[in-house]
Amino acid sequence: MKSNKLKLFIIGTLICIQPIAFGQFSAKARNVKIKDMVIANPTNLREAPAAVTDTSVVLVWEKPSEYSNVTGYTIYNDKGQKVGETDKTYYKLQNLQQHNKYKYRVKAHTGDLEESKPSNEVTIKTEKKEKIINVKDYGAVGNGTAKDTVAIQKAIDACKDGETVLLPQGKYLSGALYLHDNMTFYVDKGAQLVPSTDLKDYPWTSARHDIEDIYDPNSPTKGNPAFSSLINAGTMDHNQKPTTHNIKIMGEGTIGDDSNGLTLRSAYDAFGAKNTATHYGGGSLISLKNCDNVYMDGIHIRNGMMWTIVPVYSKDITSYELDINTTVHNGDGFDPNSSSNVYLLKDTFSTGDDCSAIKSGKDEEGRKIGIPSTDIYYRDCTFTAGHGGITLGSEMSGGISDVFGEDCTLMPIDLKTKAVNSGVRVKVSPSRGGYIHNLKVRDSICNKISVITNYDKQKAPTPGVPLPDISQFEFTNVNAPKGNSQYILDLNGSNFGQDISYLSNLKFNDCNFYSARLDSCKDVIFNNCNFDKGITKTNSVNIEEIK
User: Fold this and answer.
1) 343 in a domain, yes or no?
2) Rounded Cα distance, 517 and 528, in Å
3) Is 180 part of the annotated catalytic residue set?
4) How far is residue 178 from each of residues 363, 515, 516, measured CA to CA in Å?
5) Which of 26, 46, 154, 248 is surrounded by the most beta carbons within 10 Å?
6) Is the peptide bond before 394 cis (omega within 30 degrees of 0)?
7) Does 387 participate in catalysis according to the annotation?
8) Is residue 350 situated within a structural domain?
9) Rounded CA gap, 395 and 378, in Å?
10) Where residue 199 sits, what CATH number does that domain have?
11) Nearest to 191 by CA among 255, 264, 136
């Protein structure tokens, strides 16, 4: 019943804000005369990382330099034939022939269907269709009660390069599974991979949460190991580049379970309470360590032990149309951790913690390892519940830069209290050091933007650690629905008297919120912005309002 009420609340909210969403490309809203404008073309057409299968490809591109008169995009093949149309900056082409080359261009168009010149041309080659390995042929039962771990792992181990392991319809109870290079793990419609609730089914491993949890098989009683995840790929080593390649996790089925995930979390908490001599890291639902070229498509994601999808020291990843729905404590949805070139396209989030938290290590260890998270893209993602939508931190000591969000609905509420949480959330602490640079969000609905630079509520700076550098943010056409006093900008730098680290070089274009609060901010421009209750400034300098 509570779930239905939440869905009705979200649907009602989205109905109320729909005019803003459809108006995001409006030339009228930007005071531009369409007749006087030339239609600029989209740029940098490319394949989303790893997003080519034997029958499909996901293309992405950038909006034109001026797009106020653009209402959509048309995709053409090299014969000039129209093969797709969208109002977003990505498109999935389907029903392609295996092992074939295709060439595409994209044109922008206006409401009266006048078109721009084409983008650059991109050439892709679909993969060759290889053998499908059914886990039932290896003894999997799929009745939800018999453990299928051994049978599924046998199928994975038998899977050769380019082949697919298939979970057909059924409920497959399983402990930790280990994927390898050059394979697809396909969870069919009506199939569910259900996590076992027995901690013994998740062997010790090395992982990274706030710090690295290290397992030494030669000294298993030492260190601070972590439990394995339900799905594991790669071996963690911050001194190595990606060592595991070309993995796909796809299908219309489900990974995780509402009930078993909560029970597994309770078992993990109980274990920690009984074993206090050291810290033991929890397992994720899907763990990617030192991986590259990973494609996830269509899967329904439910509760695991804690964090849900976690790439660590990984790169070139695309998640397409994932349905991420968790209620478990620390149930973050998708957390890139010291990872780069990650695309989240059309994903939906309702989570028990941050929807998607970008991380790069904590405090001295994070600074020493020094691997940032960079080039993270969110397009057309919907955030309905969670502690924060697009979240940066709090573990960010290795640095975060170049985070881009567009055409998103950033309206998370708290699952328990229904309180408004931040659509864009930045959280750091003085002990972190590090930096967050070049965050850009545009053409999105957002209830609240929050930047907190003393998340741990320190009373003084950490000796020998420079205060985090949080700067170079830009928000364009980011709007909150009218009438809610919680829909605000809440921007806070670090101020310890003589030690100040301003939030600096912030720019807001065509943004509308209920109010704005600035504390210890510097070099901030509000260009054609509106705040019902104005802007409150404390310890802030060079704040410019342009109308």
Assistant:
1) no
2) 17
3) no
4) 31, 49, 48
5) 248
6) yes
7) yes
8) no
9) 20
10) 2.160.20.10
11) 255
Which residue, of 77, 110, 125, is where some domain finishes?
125
Q: Are residues 366 and 475 in the same domain?
A: yes
- Around Cβ 266, how many Cβ atoms within 10 Å? 14
Q: What are the C-alpha distances in Å from 397 to residues 181, 206, 211?
A: 30, 20, 11
Number of C-beta neighbours around residue 508 at 10 A: 25
Based on the fold, state whether residues 260 and 377 are members of the same structural domain: no
Tell me: do 18 and 39 sit in the same domain: no
Q: What is the mean pLDDT of residues 130-143?
A: 99
Q: Does 77 share its domain with 196?
A: no
Query: At residue 399, what are phi and psi to the nearest 5 degrees?
Result: 100, 150
Domain span holding position 492:
1-23+355-547
Q: Write out the two tokens for 69.
A: 């008169």
Provide the H-helix boundaries in 167-326: 258-274
The verdict on 370 and 453 lying in the same domain is yes
Query: What number is the average pLDDT over the span 311-315?
Result: 99
Q: Out of 201, 257, 353, 443, which one is annotated catalytic?
A: 353
Average pLDDT over residues 430-434: 95
pLDDT score of 39 more than 90: yes
| 337 within domain boundaries | no
- Catalytic-role residue among 387, 490, 510, 519: 387
Side by side, the strands of the sheet bearing 309-312 are 177-179, 231-233, 286-289, 309-312
> Are 62 and 44 within 8 A, CB to CB?
yes
As given in the structure block, the two tokens for residue 419 are 């309180």
User: For the whole prediction, is pTM greater than 0.85?
Assistant: yes
Domain count across the chain:
3
The one-letter amino acid code at 349 reads F
Over residues 479-500, mean pLDDT: 92
